[in-house]
TrEMBL record:
Domain Acyl-CoA dehydrogenase/oxidase C-terminal residue range list: 304-451
InterPro entries: Acyl-CoA_dehydrogenase, Acyl-CoA_Oxase/DH_mid-dom_sf, AcylCo_DH-like_C, AcylCo_DH/oxidase_C, AcylCoA_DH/ox_N, AcylCoA_DH/ox_N_sf, AcylCoA_DH/oxidase_NM_dom_sf, FadE_C
Pathway annotation: Lipid metabolism; fatty acid beta-oxidation
Entry similarity comment: Belongs to the acyl-CoA dehydrogenase family.
Entry cofactors: FAD
Family matches, as Pfam families: ACDH_C, Acyl-CoA_dh_1, Acyl-CoA_dh_N
Name recorded for this polypeptide: Acyl-coenzyme A dehydrogenase
Cellular component terms per the entry's GO annotation: cytoplasm
Catalytic activity: a long-chain 2,3-saturated fatty acyl-CoA + oxidized [electron-transfer flavoprotein] + H(+) = a long-chain (2E)-enoyl-CoA + reduced [electron-transfer flavoprotein]; a medium-chain 2,3-saturated fatty acyl-CoA + oxidized [electron-transfer flavoprotein] + H(+) = a medium-chain (2E)-enoyl-CoA + reduced [electron-transfer flavoprotein]
Organism classification: Bacteria, Pseudomonadati, Pseudomonadota, Alphaproteobacteria, Hyphomicrobiales
Acyl-CoA dehydrogenase/oxidase N-terminal domain sequence ranges: 84-176
Biological process per Gene Ontology, one example term: fatty acid beta-oxidation using acyl-CoA dehydrogenase
Length: 759
């Protein structure tokens, strides 16, 4: 046996090993650190081509403790009641002072900080639920709360800080004595953070009256959320040691340190205004700022490890903050748009009866269902201590992109109601905020084209990372032995995947593995089919293109789209199972599956049409897509049923849009909720009037069609609808200071014309 393995290694594997070492592109330190950051999870199962569905269904649901639920029902609701989004972004351009004080006092900035350091010690799911609920009331407040609990000094200190650093800084961050921000983005380096030119030179200097070895920092950062009000800046920079004070190397790499903003040389700039959103955001500079080495997070031994630290922390943060805001946005769009479509009439009937409205409304409903399903599943992983790097990228990209579609659909259905700004416009500011989520924490274009598949193909593949590590081993003999072991396992895996993909594709997944999931069982079979096809096509693309695949961004993006759909559809199935297979929700699940399957099949067709090796492409087409892309998307029946979920008060509607911030005030959202309930309650009365071809309730009472009490109830409903349909208008001087002199716009323009005529 040993001699056979030696023969295989020396005669068969060795030439392949030598060839692969020659063509494998060099991996930069930042690329390697990004690959090593975070964990693989369900994405690895999908990459096998044969996912174990029992593993998915056995994952414990993310739940809240009694303490966490009490925080949502108490301080979170209290905070939401303080927030008036119109005043925040139009009048104050900031949160009210009482909100800032309350946020600090109730430790909203310390949700993830352990109780031993004075924080709340909440789970990732509780963090997500808090952000989600606040997002449904105020974007500015949600961003303010989410940032200190996401990528920033708090999380980095918890993961990598020394005991002394944790004891010094975490209590101050938890109770709001210090407000944190994190400086990563530079004018020269946005998504390409490795290109930053911010520097820290190791040298001797005087700090607090004593000479110490430290870092002299120079930087320029921008787009820094909470930067204008921060007292503690987490800073990423490149460290250098020209005098070799701490070692033999001169270039030490990206490093992260804590910078109190009151240090000499720190300059906090003015505020940015991102898409008219007024959360605190702005630039800052450092000019010859000196700090001791113990201000480096993790101490001296962590110098040069900043990129890996950031990527590890980002794997968790990207899976919580923006996905939570996006899920809230989609659920909010579903609840408000369904209610508005139900109460708004055109041509004598509710606009919800028009199929042209039903189609985008169904898309909003299904998006809300799917995003929250994926959010919960990702939080379940984070609750279990897993930090899924690839899945976090999927969540950030697709949550924000799909929220954009949902909010655009909501704008279209609302029409002028959502276009005219003012206190009664409950959706316009959400529409303006969408580009912010698309852009921050890694631009979506980069994430889709390079990161999801580029990182996932290496991290989540069963053997590829082992092969790459073997090829990069400086000990050639050791590397050859490791490569031989991984490579032939890879060959066996690929052969099995080929047979599996062929059988499942030609049988339309009829015999693919699936759990007993009732009506949803066929969906699992199709996902098993697509998973096998994905694994095979990914292997063949990697084999034929090698390192050049990362330069084929459009191909990489399509593979990433398939992997993302596999994850998001898995999450939808998991949610339907966890919620007890609710029959009223099945149409939404059908919509998600039909749309996802259509996307997957189109992406496969595009990959096969554009794979450079045409011989391999033809073979793959015969194996994985012999009959072409056949799924057409959801049927009209499914669209109709899906839209109907938000058109009437029901348990299904509440499951779809749970725990949004409800404040009983005179805001546009509160008016809409009241009108929706009144219209639903008087539906039977309205139907009797329509059947009698009557529109005036008083006439209907006189003719005995309805009772006086029913007529009065109907009048109240009509008045409530009229209040919702109203849009805001403003005196000219309220919108522009140039009119304040006269207070009369007509007189203003008359005087202006006279002045021009005279000149």
């Amino acid at each position: 046996m040993r001699s056979a393995m030696s023969f295989r290694r020396d005669k068969l594997t060795k030439p392949i090993f030598s060839w692969a070492r020659g063509v494998l592109p060099a991996m930069s330190d930042t690329e390697r650190e990004a690959l090593e950051a975070g964990d693989v999870w369900w994405d690895a199962d999908l990459f096998t081509g044969n996912p174990d569905w029992s593993k998915l269904l056995e994952i414990p649901q993310a739940t809240l403790t009694a303490e966490e639920q009490a925080f949502l029902n108490g301080p979170v609701d209290e905070l939401c009641a303080m927030l008036d989004e119109w005043k925040i972004f139009w009048e104050w351009r900031d949160l009210p002072q009482e909100a800032w004080t309350f946020i600090k006092r109730e430790k909203f900035f310390g949700m993830i900080i352990p109780k031993e350091f004075g924080g709340l010690g909440f789970s990732p799911y509780a963090h997500s639920e808090v952000v989600r609920k606040i997002s449904s009331r105020s974007i500015a407040a949600a961003v303010t709360v989410m940032v200190p609990n996401s990528l920033g000094p708090g999380e980095l200190l918890m993961r990598f800080g020394t005991k002394e650093q944790q004891e010094r800084w975490l209590p101050r961050l938890a109770d709001g004595r210090d407000i944190p921000c994190f400086g990563l983005t530079s004018p020269e380096a946005g998504s390409d953070a490795a290109s930053m030119v911010d520097t820290g030179i190791i040298c001797k200097g005087v700090f607090e009256g004593r000479e110490v070895t430290g870092l002299r920092l120079n930087w320029h950062k921008r787009y820094i959320t909470l930067g204008p009000v921060a007292t503690l800046l987490g800073l990423a920079f490149k460290a250098y040691d020209p005098d070799h004070l701490v070692g033999d190397q001169e270039e030490l790499g990206i490093t992260v340190a804590l910078i109190p903003t009151n240090l000499p040389g720190v300059e906090i700039g003015h505020r940015h205004l991102p898409s008219m959103q007024v959360f605190q955001n702005g630039p800052n500079w450092g000019r010859d700022v000196f700090i001791p080495l113990d201000y480096v997070i993790g101490g001296q031994e962590r110098i040069g490890q900043g990129w890996k630290m950031l990527m590890t922390a980002l794997a968790a943060g990207r899976g919580i903050s923006l996905p939570s805001l996006s899920a809230a946005g989609a659920a909010y769009a579903a609840r408000t748009t369904g209610a508005y479509a139900r109460i708004r009439e055109q041509f004598g009937i509710s606009i919800s009866k028009f199929e042209g409205v039903e189609e985008p409304l169904a898309r909003i409903v299904a998006t809300a269902y799917q995003l929250d399903a994926a959010r919960r599943l990702t939080c379940a992983a984070l609750n279990a201590g897993v930090h899924p790097a690839v899945i976090s990228g999927i969540m950030k990209l697709h949550a924000t992109e799909r929220m954009r579609v949902a909010v655009d659909d909501a704008m279209d259905i609302h029409g002028g109601k959502a276009v005219i700004d003012g206190p009664q416009n409950y959706i316009g500011n959400l529409h303006r905020a969408v580009p912010v989520g698309i852009t921050v924490e890694g631009a979506n274009i980069l994430t889709r084209n390079l990161i999801i598949f580029g990182q996932g193909a290496i991290r989540a593949h069963p053997y590829l990372l082992d092969e790459m590590n073997a090829l990069a081993d400086t000990d050639r003999e050791r590397g050859l032995t490791a490569f031989d072991k991984a490579f032939w396992k890879h060959v066996g895996h690929s052969f099995q995947t080929l047979l599996r993909a062929f059988g499942r594709s030609w049988s339309f997944g009829a015999f693919a593995l699936a759990p007993d999931a009732g009506d949803a069982t066929p969906f699992y079979r199709q996902l098993s089919r697509y998973s096998a096809a994905f694994a095979l096509c990914a292997d063949m693309a990697l084999l034929t293109l090698g390192g050049a695949l990362k330069r084929k961004e459009m191909l990489s993006a399509r593979f990433g789209d398939i992997l993302s759909e596999l994850y998001l559809l898995s999450a939808a199935l998991k949610r339907w199972q966890d919620e007890g297979r609710q029959k009223d929700d099945f149409a939404v699940l059908e919509w998600c599956m039909a749309t996802g399957f259509k996307t997957i099949e189109i992406k496969f067709a595009e990959i096969l049409a554009n794979l450079p090796n045409r011989f391999v492409a033809v073979i793959l087409k015969l194996v994985v897509q012999p009959f072409g892309a056949r799924v057409l998307g959801p049927s009209d029946r499914v669209v109709h049923q899906c839209a109907g979920i938000v058109l009437e008060p029901s348990a299904a509607r509440e499951r779809l849009t749970p725990d949004l911030a409800h404040v009983d005030d005179d805001s546009g959202f509160a008016r809409l909720e009241r009108a929706f309930k009144l219209v639903a309650a008087t539906d039977a009365v309205a139907k009797r009037m329509r059947a009698a071809h009557l529109r005036d309730w008083k006439e209907a009472v006189a003719k005995g069609v309805i009772t006086q009490a029913e007529g009065e109830q109907l009048a109240v409903a009509h008045a409530a609808v009229a209040k919702v349909i109203e849009v805001d208008d403003f005196a000219p001087e309220a919108l522009s200071p140039i009119y304040k002199k006269t207070g009369d716009v007509h007189q203003f323009f008359q005087e202006l014309g006279e002045q021009r005529a005279a000149s």
